[in-house]
Design goal:
The chain folds into two domains: 15-178, Rossmann fold; 190-276, Conserved Hypothetical Protein Ylqf, Chain: A, domain 2, CATH 1.10.1580. The strands form two sheets. Strands 3-2-1-4-6-5 form a six-stranded mixed beta sheet, sandwiched between helices. A two-stranded antiparallel ribbon has the order 7-8. Helix content is 39%, strand content 13%. α3 (71-83) links the parallel β2 and β3 (87-90). α10 packs across α11. The radius of gyration is 21 Å and the shape is elongated. The chain contains eleven helices and eight strands. The longest helix has 15 residues, at 209-223. The protein is of the alpha/beta class. The two termini are 33 Å apart. Mean pLDDT is 87; it is low at 153-162. The structure holds guanosine-5',3'-tetraphosphate. Guanosine-5',3'-tetraphosphate is lined by residues 64-65, 67-68, 92-94, 134, 136-142, 155.
Length: 297
């Protein structure tokens, strides 16, 4: 993507350094790390340093918002993380779907060795402690609210808001360490930023909304043409640019301004809203790196 498409993004590097230190300091208090990512863009929605930061700790990756992602792609991502040393499951923290698998997966798979050791030493009652990490907007608060059954995890992990770490009790012997602070995704990669802007994880004012919608429409035309055709009842030609597609959507929806011009800004807002709410279909924005793709099916 062209650099000039994007406005300057403020990345708060100071907050990152603090979060990194906090994670490092608290790792010794937990048995495993649960990392929550967006199933629609599982690599773009993680902090690139997470593997290094948590190395040595058993890990579970939660592919959240799986209700909005392409099932087949989600399965590929589960395999990808499993091939790369972490357990992974798909969840939907909005409805709670898949969450019942979380603790059994942790106890029977992620921490299998620890559990067996504890059993052998008659320590089965000892608490299991988990650290939960994720970049803003992936659904960390929704997850904790679902698991803990209360509204204690507020959406406060924003720059400038100080909050101390808190332990959240999940059941009689499981505790979750909700880490304060902001973990950012990979800033320097513009494609990453665009995927996160599509999902709404990065605010719209980082990118011009029409540019963003045009990029999304082009991606849809190339990867999910059927969903695009069905949603907007438009024809798609291979040569259609993002602008042409945006105009087709606007025209079809009757979004005109005086003089017969198409209101592309309104069309852009509609396209992005409909993508984010799942009305454009279940769409995954990136697939695992080629060499990691499973040779199944
Ligand atoms: P955070 O703590 O990591 O910053 O994220 P948070 O839980 O606040 O979730 C961010 C947004 O993502 C929320 O939407 C939330 O409802 C939505 N969300 C979280 N998990 C899922 C999921 O599995 N599926 C879907 N479809 N959405 C999910 P919002 O628009 O900010 O708020 P609201 O819609 O809850 O009012």
């Amino acid at each position: 993507m062209e650099n000039n498409d994007m406005r300057q993004i403020q990345w708060f590097p100071g907050h990152m350094a603090k979060t990194r230190r906090l994670i490092a300091a608290n790792l010794k208090l937990v048995d495993a790390v649960t990392e929550i990512v967006d199933a629609r863009a599982p690599l773009s929605s993680r902090n690139p340093e997470m593997d290094r930061m948590t190395s040595g700790k058993p890990r579970l990756v939660l592919l959240n918002k799986c209700d909005l992602a392409d099932d087949k792609a989600t399965q590929m991502w589960i395999n990808y993380f499993r091939n790369n040393g972490a357990e992974a499951i798909a969840v939907d923290c909005k409805s709670g779907k898949g969450l019942k698998n979380m603790l059994p997966t942790i106890k029977n798979k992620v921490l299998k060795e620890l559990m067996e050791k504890r059993e052998k030493h008659g320590m089965t009652g000892a608490p299991v402690r988990l650290m939960i990490v994720g970049i803003p907007n992936v659904g960390k608060s929704s997850l904790i609210n679902r698991l803990a059954g209360s509204k204690r995890a507020k959406v406060e992990d924003r720059p400038g808001v100080t909050r101390t770490k808190q332990w959240v009790k999940l059941d009689n012997n499981t505790e979750l360490l909700d880490m304060p602070g902001v973990l950012w995704p990979k800033f320097e990669d513009q494609d990453v930023a665009v995927r996160l802007a599509f999902t709404g994880a990065i605010s719209d004012d980082i990118l011009d909304i029409e540019t963003l919608a045009m990029k999304l429409l082009k991606f849809m035309a190339e990867n999910y043409p059927q969903s695009l055709k069905e949603r907007y009842k438009i024809d798609i030609d291979e040569e259609d640019t993002g602008l042409v597609l945006l105009e087709k959507v606007g025209k079809k929806r009757g979004m005109m301004i005086s003089g017969g011009e198409i209101n592309t800004e309104r069309a852009a807002i509609t396209v992005l809203d409909e993508f984010r709410s799942g009305k454009l279909g279940r769409i995954t924005l990136e697939l695992p790196p080629k060499k990691e793709q499973p040779c199944q099916e």
